[in-house]
Design goal:
253 residues, alpha+beta, Thiol Ester Dehydrase, Chain A, 2 domains
Length: 253
């Protein structure tokens, strides 16, 4: 781990048990690592989960986009570096760079976070958190910002009921669980011939244990899929998954 005031880095080693069936770093684990590194950075400033909990507040991930040029494979090291690009009263924009063992950038990510009152479930004014203004970085990401994700009204529909393993300590569905569920809608053969290039996902309203939702996938093009998880007529999250043609056996060789 390496920390500075405005940037924070964590180096990982990818084990076989963490890989996807194509021996790559899987997208859900990438997002989990992004959350972990963001949390560590906030903790280094003294405004992490434990500190905000004292005031009845919590950080909540609102949106995340990940773009990968290539992936670490089994037994590879990779490093995630994070920094805050900007903020306003309601949102903080936090960026990430993913590098391989030689320090070459292989991916980027953008995320938007907000602070909510844990009891009232309303947004808090984060402009009052003075540490943000003094720690905003001048570093800019080459990754384009995500376009607004539109409602998905066409495509295939499948039901899903959230279980125990989908939920976290806040007793609502974990951010990464949504990504796993969406990815599980596609067959193994698809991932053998396609590489996940970019994920854009927006979290609109939390789901809870035991809740049954409808998962809708619209294959806009052979390489782009729009997705939505809906419950009781309301969208809970929306996503766009973009792929590239790829034979994983050639890539891994």
């Amino acid at each position: 781990m390496e920390a500075s005031v405005k940037e924070y880095s964590h180096t990982y080693f990818l084990t076989a048990g963490e890989c996807d069936p194509e021996s790559r770093l899987p997208m859900p684990l990438i997002v989990s690592r992004l959350i972990e590194v963001a949390t560590e950075h906030a903790n280094s400033w003294g405004v992490g989960y434990a500190r905000l909990k004292e005031d009845g507040q919590a950080w909540v991930l609102s949106r995340v986009s990940v773009e990968m040029m290539r992936y670490p494979h089994v037994n590879d090291e990779y490093t995630i570096t994070t920094w805050v690009e900007s903020y306003n009263r309601h949102f903080s924009e936090r960026n990430f760079c993913i590098t391989d063992g030689s320090g070459e950038a292989i991916g980027y990510a953008r995320s938007v976070w907000m602070v909510i009152d844990s009891r009232e479930r309303v947004l808090c004014d984060i402009s009052k958190l003075g540490y943000i203004s003094s720690n905003v970085s001048d570093r800019r990401s080459p990754m384009t910002q995500a376009e607004r994700l539109q409602p998905v009204t066409e495509g295939s529909c499948n039901p899903y009921t959230f279980g125990y393993i989908d939920t976290d300590s806040n007793r609502h569905v974990n951010s990464v669980s949504y990504i796993k569920i969406l990815m599980n809608q596609l067959p193994l053969e698809f991932y053998d011939t396609h590489r996940f290039v970019r994920l854009d996902i927006a979290y609109l309203k939390e789901c809870l244990f035991g809740e049954t939702v409808t998962i809708r996938l619209d294959h806009r093009t052979p390489l782009e899929i729009s997705a939505e998880i809906e419950s009781d007529g309301a969208a809970r999250c929306r996503a766009r998954m973009t792929f590239a043609d790829c034979d994983y056996r050639e890539e891994f060789a």
